[in-house]
Amino acid sequence: MALYVKAAEILEKAEKKQGALKTLVYDSKFNNVKQLFALVFETHKFSAVLEEIISTTKLLKLTRLKLPQAKVLVYDLLLGHGLKCGGAWKAALLKNRARLQAALARIKVRQGVCNNQDLIPANGPQDQRPLPRYVRVNTLKTSVADTVDYLKREGFTYLGQARTVEDLTLKGTHFVQDMDIPEILIFSPKTDFHNHFLYKAGHLILQDKASCLPAHVLHPPPGSVVLDACAAPGNKTSHLAALMENRGRLLALDLDAKRLSTMSTLLLRAGVTCQTLRHQDFLKVDPQSAEYREVEYILLDPSCSGSGMVCLRDDSDTDPARLSSLAAFQLKCLKHALSFPRVNRLVYSTCSVHRQENEDVVSACLQENNHFRLVPVLPQWPEHGLPPLSQCLRASPSSTRTHGFFVAMLQRHSETDVALGGSLSPSLSTPLVSVPESEVSDTEDQPEPTSDSTDQTGPGPALKKRRRKRKRKKKNKTSGASGLTTQ
């Protein structure tokens, strides 16, 4: 019974984006971790089929089970090695076994398959390649160099810094440093750090590279005031604290009290001390209040479909009604975030692949907030936003060897900039992340104003210089002419 209770709990957390399946399993402290992981992982693979069986047989109504519980029980009954529990749950499932088996048979006939494995939706060959194991070095407790040395002494083989995505295909004990985010180390997919000393001590954070992008792009400087609007489970929050060097104020909000409790433990292990946790709905925060009116940087990662998470894909990811509802909520959050009076830079991110939750939300928001503009970041990144929002970043298993993700950075610019066509304000509190010099406009390359310019502030230096030059030529010409006359 305990196996199914814990498996159902982990499935529910994973579907709510409270962590990756493997991490949740190993953090559960369950006695037989391998058995639990196998049940959870296999149940999730067949999630869409199991939901259809449960729905068509009205199993929840007949047994009063919750959906996650029903999934793990039906999986073991129909697709696994048989139920491993007794009591009321087993009796309820056995009572309905014929109905459940008939529903499974109908699905197989409809799809024209014989084997259970053929019921799993087929992905492209790129998506079937296992993703590398990404590990973020927690620079609040150690350095990348010290971590590399420690792992080399343990028998790992360091290959240096990766240069291309193809360098991320690793085997055995080989590992590399990431080419985009220097505090990330990359290992072969089967490398497990859940029981490693460095992970348990908070020196390493198990976090997908795409999930590290939002904090890396926002990059708040030490001493700043930062708001993590939808913070739990806390990996991005700990990354922000590391970039801030634990200096400044990091306000972290979440509506789920249980997730905040888990997050508090994670931040304590990571050595984060600059945080203030709040059990609060971000949309109900007053931007003008004393606690929030000084916020300069905001990381907004609201609830989304989770369609980019390789281990969490199901048919609900593409439900039009659900996507429309999520997009409306995301747009409301983004508008609210831009209403904070002193916010200078904001990063909006989702783990969704749908344009409706990504580019469409950003475009709709910018139409109503012309004092903010998109800023291009990480120009070397292989996948960018869908046209016309090429300043944004996208991630995917095929192009970046990560989970699917979307990141956009919005920067405030002055009223003068808006009048001049929305150019970036020249006075940024900190430099933008990875914007090459070639993309920054140089005043020497700009066309000089014509002589009939009507700038209210008066002629610019270039125009004054040309006028002085014309006066000197005219004067020299006059002097030469008068000299010829006297001769």
From TrEMBL:
Q: Which GO terms describe its biological process?
A: rRNA base methylation
Which spans does this entry mark as compositional bias, Polar residues? 448-457, 478-487
Q: Which Pfam families match?
A: Methyltr_RsmB-F, NSUN5_fdxn-like, NSUN5_N
Q: Which GO terms of the molecular function aspect are on file?
A: RNA binding; RNA methyltransferase activity
Kindly list the positions annotated as binding S-adenosyl-L-methionine.
C230, A231, A232, P233, G234, N235, K236, D254, D281, D301
List the active-site residues.
C351
Q: Which Gene Ontology CC terms are recorded? A: nucleolus
Describe the location of the SAM-dependent MTase RsmB/NOP-type domain by residue ranges.
123-413
Residue ranges under compositional bias (Basic residues)? 463-477
Q: Does the keyword Cell wall biogenesis/degradation apply?
A: no
Q: Which parts of this chain are annotated as the region Disordered?
A: 418-487
Q: Does the keyword Electron transport apply?
A: no
Q: Which PROSITE patterns match?
A: SAM_MT_RSMB_NOP (PS51686)
Composition bias (Low complexity) maps to 423-438
Keywords, A to Z, come to: Methyltransferase, RNA-binding, S-adenosyl-L-methionine, Transferase
User: InterPro entries in the record, alphabetically?
Assistant: MeTrfase_RsmB-F_NOP2_cat, MeTrfase_RsmB-F_NOP2_dom, NSUN5_7_fdxn-like, NSUN5_RCM1_N, RCMT, SAM-dependent_MTases_sf
Q: Which family does it belong to?
A: Belongs to the class I-like SAM-binding methyltransferase superfamily. RsmB/NOP family.
What is the protein name given in its UniProt record? SAM-dependent MTase RsmB/NOP-type domain-containing protein
What species does this protein belong to? Periophthalmus magnuspinnatus
Which lineage is the organism of this entry classified under, starting from the top rank? Eukaryota, Metazoa, Chordata, Craniata, Vertebrata
